[in-house]
């Protein structure tokens, strides 16, 4: 089973943003040493406790400090940007780091309405234009606009020997079918979906139309997971991220991910306890055998080629250790 890493660059209560970004780089290095297939970093805007606003910048830093692991964005939020600029940025990365760059694409705003307005004037209109924007971007990446079309004489330089590999990310039938009709690999965000994900992925597999002869559909499923030497320890570590989510929902999470000690003493209402239990059920928490078994089960249900893991902990050591335990199990 192929395993990969999704990183949101979380900021813990005892960290500066720079320390959080450095921890992301060290996580990518650890992932490479452990044999993970790829490392992706997310794009979020003005979300308290997350430092991943500019994945394209971090990928340069991470690429320069790793050598073999595939690296990419999970995902560039395309409605905010012109496809040509996205192609230029990722072609540059693919030139610097040959055959290592993934370009994950999404349509979500990635932040508040105010942050969205600060980023782009026509976000909602561009969401509706996502199919057109996507096709335009793919032509720029392949440098194959048909003759006499608007951009037929425009190249997204520098043109790498091996273009970035595009993936479409989503949680709905709409995103699955958009990936299928464009012959793109698809990543389903199980960790942020309450839909029947297996049915969504099956729609993708059945509707897939290859862009080039011989291409086959590829599926990654992304999950939240925390692994430790014992189930009890994993539950304890997971409490920090669970309490942090409750704090953020109440606009109290400005200090970042709380320590385990703070999380244990945080007062919860009956409703908040129910919310935490629901979130816990969506996560994979346990010892290496338990979490690996759940990953295998999900892979079989989704018919996934690869499982991608998002792990948020207070201590950077616990995060890397979680990934380490999963790879040696």
TrEMBL record:
InterPro entries with a match to the protein in the record: Bact_Lucif_Oxidored, CmoO-like, Luciferase-like_dom, Luciferase-like_sf
Luciferase-like domain mapped to chain residues: 1-300
GO (cellular component) term, any one: cytosol
Superkingdom of origin: Bacteria
GO function terms (MF aspect): oxidoreductase activity, acting on paired donors, with incorporation or reduction of molecular oxygen
Pfam families reported for this sequence: Bac_luciferase (PF00296)
PANTHER family assigned to the protein according to its UniProt record, in alphabetical order: LUCIFERASE-LIKE MONOOXYGENASE (PTHR30137)
Family: To bacterial alkanal monooxygenase alpha and beta chains.
Protein name per Swiss-Prot or TrEMBL: Luciferase family oxidoreductase group 1
């Amino acid at each position: 089973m192929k395993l990969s890493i999704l990183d949101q660059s979380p900021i813990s209560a005892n960290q500066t943003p720079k320390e959080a970004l450095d921890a992301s780089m060290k996580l990518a290095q650890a992932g490479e040493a452990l044999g993970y297939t790829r490392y992706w970093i997310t794009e979020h805007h003005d979300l308290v406790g997350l430092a991943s606003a500019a994945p394209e910048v971090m990928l340069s830093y991470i690429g320069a400090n790793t050598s073999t692991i595939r690296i990419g964005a999970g995902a560039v939020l395309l409605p905010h940007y012109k496809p040509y600029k996205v192609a230029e940025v990722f072609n540059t990365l693919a030139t610097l780091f040959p055959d290592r760059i993934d370009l994950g694409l999404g349509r979500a705003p990635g932040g508040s309405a105010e942050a969205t307005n600060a980023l782009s004037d026509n976000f909602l209109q561009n969401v509706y234009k996502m199919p057109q924007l996507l096709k335009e971007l793919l032509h720029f990446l392949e440098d194959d606009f048909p003759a006499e079309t608007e951009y037929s004489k425009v190249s997204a330089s520098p043109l790498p020997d091996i273009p970035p590999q595009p993936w479409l990310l989503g949680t709905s039938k709409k995103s699955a079918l958009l990936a299928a009709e464009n012959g793109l690999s698809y990543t389903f965000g199980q960790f942020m979906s309450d839909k029947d994900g297996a049915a969504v992925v099956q729609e993708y597999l059945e509707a897939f139309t290859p862009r080039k002869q011989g291409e086959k559909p590829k599926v990654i499923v992304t999950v939240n997971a925390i692994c430790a030497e014992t189930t009890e320890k994993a539950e304890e570590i997971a409490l920090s991220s669970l309490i942090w989510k409750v704090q953020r929902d109440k606009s109290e999470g400005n200090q970042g991910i709380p320590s385990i000690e703070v999380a244990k003493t945080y007062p919860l209402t009956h409703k908040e306890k129910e919310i935490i239990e629901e979130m816990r059920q969506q996560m994979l928490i346990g010892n290496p055998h338990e979490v690996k078994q759940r990953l295998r089960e999900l892979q079989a249900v989704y018919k996934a080629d690869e499982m991608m893991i998002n792990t948020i902990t207070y201590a950077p050591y616990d995060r890397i250790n979680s990934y380490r335990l999963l790879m040696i199990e």
